[in-house]
Structure formats: C-alpha cells, structure tokens
Write a structure and sequence with these properties.
Layout: E1 8-11, H1 27-40, E2 44-48, H2 54-66, E3 71-77, H3 80-90, E4 97-103, H4 106-113, H5 117-132, E5 138-143, H6 150-162, E6 167-172, H7 179-192, E7 200-205, H8 212-222, E8 226-229, H9 243-252, H10 268-279, H11 300-308, H12 336-345, H13 353-369, H14 375-388, E9 395-403, E10 410-418, E11 421-429, H15 432-443, E12 449-457, E13 466-474, E14 477-485, H16 488-522
Helix pairs in contact: 1-2, 1-10, 2-3, 5-6, 6-7, 7-8, 8-9, 13-14, 15-16
Length: about 525
C-alpha cells in the first residue's frame, strides 16, 4: 500500500488501558497479550510506563524481547530519568520507540506543571533531543492537546519535529473535543507547521463524551496517519478509542476512508476475549464488533431478511472479525471428534489431549443439564479446563455442599486437595458465598484482600452457565481467577481458588528475588 494510504495502529491497552481502575495485568498476562497483538498485526505496542514501577519496567523489557513484528514502545515524561528508564527497558529490541509527553494547555501548564509556556517550550527542545539521541524513533505528545491554544500548539509541534520527533500525537486527554473541532486541529497543523511533512500525525482520543472513535476517524480523514487505541476501548475513566471499532470502520467504509491498516481482523474477537479474561472486565453484549449480540438477530423481520440475504441486516460478516455465525450447533449426542472439530473452529487448535478430555467430560455433563449448548458455553468450559490443567495448582476443589435459604445460617461443607492432602471443613457465613470463602480460608490459611467478586451469565436462560471473576490483592500484588459452572456457587469457589493458586505462584517466584536482595543488603 502507498504510505499516504497506510494508517498505523498504535495500541496502548497495556499502558493506558491498564490505568482503568482494577485492570492491572501480571507479567505473564502481558506477555500473553503481546504475543496475540503481534500476531494481530498491531504496528506499535505501548507496553507500559517503565519509570512507574519495577513491575512496569520488567513488563516492558520482557515484551520488547518477545515481539517479532510489532514495535515496542514505552512512555516517558519530560524527565531524563524517565527517558533513560524507558531506554533501558526497550534496548533489547532491534527497533523500539520512546514516547515522551508534556502538557501544553493553559489549564495544565498553570495548575499541573506550574510552568510558563516558555518553560514548557524549552523542555520540549531539551527532552525530545535527549530521547532522539537514544533512538531514531521518538514520539512526542502535547498532553491535553484539544484544549491547547492553536498558535502555541503549532509552535511546539514545529519544535518537537526539529528536535527529532518522527511522530506527533495530539491527545484528546479528557475526551472534550468533537469531530468537527478535531478535524480543524489536524488541518491547522498540516497547513501551518512548516516541517509537518517530516512527521506522522497521530490521534489519541478518550471516550468521556462517547466520541473517541468518531474523533479518531475524523483525525484520519483530516490527514493524521496513526490512531492510538485499546482493545475493547478500555482505559482511564470512560476509556479510549476501541481498536476493533476504528479498524472495522475503515475496512467497512473504505469508500469514504480509502485507507488500509495491517490488522488481521479475523483475530479481533480472540484479542477481545483475552483482554476481557485477563482484566476481569466483561464485554457488554451490545458492544460494537466484538459484543455477544453484534451479530445476533432476534426480530422476526430481521431473521426473514437474513435468510433471504445476509446483507440486509449485516454490514460486515461475523467471520471477518473471528466470530462464528452459528451458535446453536452442539448437543448431548455429539461425540469427541465433533467436539474437537468445534474447538478448532473456535480457535483452540493447540490444546493438549488432557484439556480436551477434561472439557469434553464437562460438556457432556452440561449437555444433560441444558437444552441448548452455545459457543460461549464451550469457550467457558475450555477456559476453565485450561486453569485446572495447570499442574502447579496447590489447591483443587474436591467437593462442595452449600445450605442456603431463610431461617437458618448459610453453611458450606467443603473438601479441598491442599498440596496433595485432602482436607475438609464446615463454615457458616453471611450468605453462601461468604461461607464458601471462609471454608477455603480455614483449609488454606491466608491473608488477602478481596477486591472484586463478579458474576455474569455466559448465555441466557435459567440453566445458563455462570462465569465468576475474583480478584485478590496481597502486598501490592493482584491476581484474577475465573471459573464457569451452571452452579454459581461452585464457580465462585473455583474462581477464588484459581486466584489463590496464581497468588501462590507469584509468591514462589518472588521469594528467590527477595532472598537475593536480603543477601546483598547483608553483604553476602
């Protein structure tokens, strides 16, 4: 494709997206996400903010080593310490980008930075030049750009390009602008900045007014050629522009936006599910492109139109984003071969025989309970089996009985396999879930904070499977456990146990590092 027709996709799911309250990701989860993003065809992956914490530095460093096609990127404020830390995390990659930023709006300069416009101007020259000496791929952002004086923005953008920035990002940091205004901002920069042809203009739009995608596309139509976005639109406050929406809008309305991205759109659904599972943030049913109902038709009129010609009510095919159109296909009479073939069609081609056998057994049990088996049911079973297949699990639920209702205290009887020992306990609680969690704590004493307990049905109906997400915290470390079952209480127990198993694994990995640090302090 011609350079003028190429739109670069800059993903910030693991940096801006992780700043969503409660969306923290472990190192292992970030590496898993980065591999899928690399396969997806994302051009630049902003892996984190290296100066923010040792965990962020470690994640950016690890991701920079595993990416094969995507360019890793780290964020840095206008601080040489920030920029150096960014460089140290990224230097393992053959190509990498340093993304540095400073606020330029009158509001931010006065109340956030306590700097004058001249001081900010001088800082741009100093720090963009400093970053450029470490890499030839520097991106500069004028934070709160859409509330910045246009003459001052033109002046700072010109300086950033002179100082070595090859990408100039215009953030709508607080989701304040509208498409017509954002169009004018991009056009003004293209017309008034004399050296603008030496850089790519980028958009970074937040969704506070629900306009992030619309503003991003307006920027592209005005001449920007990079979109900063996140999978599922996650991010601070109301989130960022959703990657899957901007990509499919460009692809579907190529008549009005004759541009191309390098995204393999058939992997969008897979990426969406992965990010949802890792963060514990469910995708709303009516979410564009990747929502459960995005390709569902219930109205009789719509169904009639679809049977005659699918184009009557679908502007894109579900297959184009990695979704299978038919959901009601499996039943209790299906055999292993059909089940395995179904798993392959859902994107699970690399499962071990143990995981398939475990999921198939659960499928048979579920098929006896439910009249209809949906794709989402099977996906939940497989994801649950993948957790149970982890041989490092210290805790395994063996049996659970719960007594609930009015008139008597709620009680749970539980048997756990704790590091190979079978243990049982009975506890009462303020509700059945509380009793279950007390049983687990009794059988495996621990002290963690429960940050999230969330239940949602995988499919509709009273016989639907429930997927439970549990997030726990211990000494600043968080883990998320998920489990699915037609019995919500069983799913709750397994989700909590899965989170605990992950926390135990984190402890085991952290202990040797702590011992090494203590030895250094003792001078050994």
């Amino acid at each position: 494709m011609a350079d003028k027709d190429k739109v670069f996709i800059f993903d910030t799911t693991m940096r801006d997206g992780e700043q969503s309250p409660g969306a923290s990701m472990s190192l292992e989860e970030k590496i898993q996400i980065s591999r899928v993003f690399d396969e997806l065809g994302i051009d630049i992956i902003e892996a984190g903010f290296p100066i923010a914490s040792p965990g962020d530095f470690e994640a950016v460093s690890a991701i920079s080593k595993v990416l094969k096609k995507s360019i890793p990127c780290g964020l840095a404020r206008h601080s040489k310490k920030d920029i150096d830390r960014c460089y140290e995390a990224l230097k393992h990659a053959p190509r990498f980008r340093i993304h540095t930023f400073i606020s330029t709006s009158p509001l931010h300069m006065k109340h956030k930075l306590n700097k004058t416009p001249d001081q900010v101007y001088d800082s741009i020259k100093e720090h963009v030049t400093y970053a450029r000496n470490l890499t030839d791929d520097v991106e500069w952002s004028c934070e709160d750009g859409t509330r910045t004086d246009m003459d001052y923005m033109c002046k700072t953008v010109e300086l950033a390009i002179k100082s070595g920035a090859k990408t100039i990002n215009i953030p709508d940091t607080v989701g304040y602008t509208v498409p017509s205004e954002f169009t004018k901002i991009i056009e003004t920069l293209l017309n008034k900045v004399p050296n603008i042809d030496k850089a790519i203009l980028s958009t970074h739009c937040h969704n506070d007014l629900g306009l992030a995608v619309a503003n991003s596309l307006a920027g592209i139509q005005a001449g920007a050629r990079q979109i900063e976005c996140t999978i599922n639109g996650i991010g601070e406050r109301a989130g960022n522009a959703a990657l899957e929406e901007v990509v499919m809008a460009i692809r579907t309305r190529n008549d009005l936006m004759p541009y191309e991205t390098g995204i393999n759109t058939t992997l969008l659904s897979k990426a969406s599910k992965l990010v949802s599972n890792v963060t514990g943030f469910p995708v709303q049913f009516n979410k564009a492109i990747v929502g459960k109902n995005a390709f569902a038709h219930e109205s009789g009129i719509h169904q009639d139109g679809m049977l005659k010609n699918r184009n009557t009510y679908e502007i894109m095919t579900p297959e184009s984003v990695g979704v299978k159109q038919t959901s009601l296909v499996m039943g209790k009479h299906s055999g292993r071969h059909a089940f395995k073939d179904k798993l392959i069609s859902l994107g699970y081609a690399d499962l071990t025989d143990d995981v398939i056998e475990n999921a198939f057994g659960k499928f048979k049990v579920l098929a006896d309970k439910k009249k209809h088996i949906y794709d989402e049911d099977i996906i939940a079973l497989v994801d649950d089996s993948l957790v149970l297949d982890n041989k490092a699990n210290n805790l395994v639920l063996k049996s659970l009985k719960v007594f609930a209702g009015t008139g008597e205290p709620q009680k749970a009887d539980m048997t756990l396999d704790v590091n190979g020992q079978i243990k049982s306990a009975t506890e009462t609680g303020d509700g059945p879930v509380d009793a279950i969690f007390k049983c687990i704590k009794s059988l495996y004493p621990h002290d963690v904070n429960l940050q999230l307990y969330q239940v949602h049905a995988v499919t509709e109906g009273t016989d639907a499977q429930a997927t439970v997400s549990v997030r726990i915290e211990e000494n600043g470390k968080t883990t998320v456990g998920q489990a699915a079952d037609t019995d919500t209480l069983v799913a709750s127990a397994n989700a909590y146990i899965a989170a605990l198993n992950k926390m135990i694994l984190k402890r085991e990995k952290t202990a040797p590092m702590m011992e090494q640090q203590e030895e250094k302090m003792r001078g050994i």
